Amino acid sequence: MKTKECTGQIPIDFGRDYRNNEPTSKAADEKIGKMKATQCQQVYTVIRNICNGATSQEIAQAGNIPNEVVHKRLATLKANKHIREGQPRKCKVTGNVVKTWWII
Question: Are 65 and 38 within 8 A, CB to CB?
Fold first, then answer.
């Protein structure tokens, strides 16, 4: 499977609503957007460099990233076509059969 080079920030689109906010909330939105982009980059980097094909819990553990952050950013990365869902398998962390995540 081919992997994308991770030489800089991956492009993330947080949607139309983010771009159409009122000027009064623009600064807060930019700060939150930067935080989300940083979290996406962290999750993507862990998958790419440490555990391509891992479960969300394995990704969280490998990257020392809170589980809830991993879950949210997996959805964002999938929506932006940077990762895809793979075949479910038994998670090494929880022991449950869950989906895996792969770099596109």
Answer: no
